[in-house]
Amino acid sequence: MADQINTLEELSAVAGVETVAEEVVAHEPVRDELGRSYATGKRKDAVARVWIKPGSGKVTVNGKDQDVYFARPVLQLILRQPMQVAGVEGEFDVVATVKGGGLTGQAGAVKHGISKALQLYDPSLRGALKAAGFLTRDSRVVERKKYGKAKARKSFQFSKR
User: 125, 100, 121, 84: which is closest to 48 by C-alpha?
Assistant: First the structure.
């Protein structure tokens, strides 16, 4: 037991490998030449392409203001959640194009896209967004209809005779 290796340096010397000091790598912001960050958000069948840039807090969805496109207050609340959690409400302009699904799915897709784009624009916001669960794609989708069934799981009415 006298020739026991005690430290990482001794191990690397015996193995003939140079040691490399591990450093904590801070993620770099991802922005294009116009100073925007882009992300894709998804929810159910809806897919949203989202660009954010510093501005006055204006949100545009498919060329319309958010109040016009998402008329229900609940859907507008969903869009504001990532900005509120990150503490940057009113600091970014959002431009989104969304396709597929219904309005609720589209609102969820834009929310997911805004969250991912905020995290790319400023990596320090990742902790708050991840803790709130906004960076995780909600994978629940409509179950397919099976043959021999009225819907996905509902059976036809049973008749004993």
Answer: 100
